[in-house]
Amino acid sequence: xxxxxxxxxxxxxxxxxxxxxxxxxxxxxxxxxxxxxxxxxxxxxxxxxxxxxxxxxxxxxxxxxxxxxxxxxxxxxxxxxxxxxxxxxxxxxxxxxxxxxxxxxxxxxxxxxxxxxxxxxxxxxxxxxxxxxxxxxxxxxxxxxxxxxxxxxxxxxxxxxxxxxxxxxxxxxxxxxxxxxxxxxxxxxxxxxxxxxxxxxxxxxxxxxxxxxxxxxxxxxxxxxxxxxxxxxxxxxxxxxxxxxxxxxxxxxxxxxxxxxxxxxxxxxxxxxxxxxx
Length: 278
Ligand SMILES: C[S@@+](CC[C@H](N)C(=O)[O-])C[C@H]1O[C@@H](n2cnc3c(N)ncnc32)[C@H](O)[C@@H]1O
Hints:
The chain is of the alpha/beta class. Helices cover 37% and strands 14% of the residues.
């Protein structure tokens, strides 16, 4: 119900006015409410399409957290180094059979690897991903990029975090019983269980709102990108500042999608990414 109230309020918003957003968040001037995105649009691209556009332009050392069956990992081309982390994934190409948390610790002590491109796609819970981003930024080369998956849910239930769903993940996905795990994951999209995107969108929104990194999204592929280097083509001036976890409600996401997620089409991304990386 709150969502509808917020929506009605938003209809009164005027261009170039300073006004109060849902949750009493004050927004910068120059906001345009017009949406070029329908959140109901199906995802047309996979993360591998986005990642391969990057590796086409720039030779990368690549790291993937959460490989599973290798739908992305096994198809990444033109990389100098390719490391995939997953304790239980089915792909034979996984290089480190451990959790990402274990990997970051081992890397700090022993491996000392750094990467140009890190794809984060393991457990889709805000606090876990927040830690993975923090650790990834430490081993990301200066012009490097972080790619986060599942940041553009198209309905409220897809990003709702319920303990019962994560209990299912703990019991079925994070176990050595490959059959059970695959059954769960293969059916995820068909059955659309609550929480299949998780609340990773909040990680992208948080970084966009609280840091100077360039953060933008490609909803066509349900991903967001965090760049250490400023990327002019993907900057969007108007953004909401100082978001906290409590302020990041579905109402805010839905009504202020452009500002908090900074979306671009896949075609725009392909046209513009090369000038930012070369
Ligand atoms: C959504 S799937 C990965 C999908 C894959 N990246 C792709 O594009 O097809 C999530 C995977 O993360 C793995 N995982 C869960 N917790 C993890 C952790 N703490 N560290 C690394 N991987 C984890 C699971 O075993 C599962 O295979």
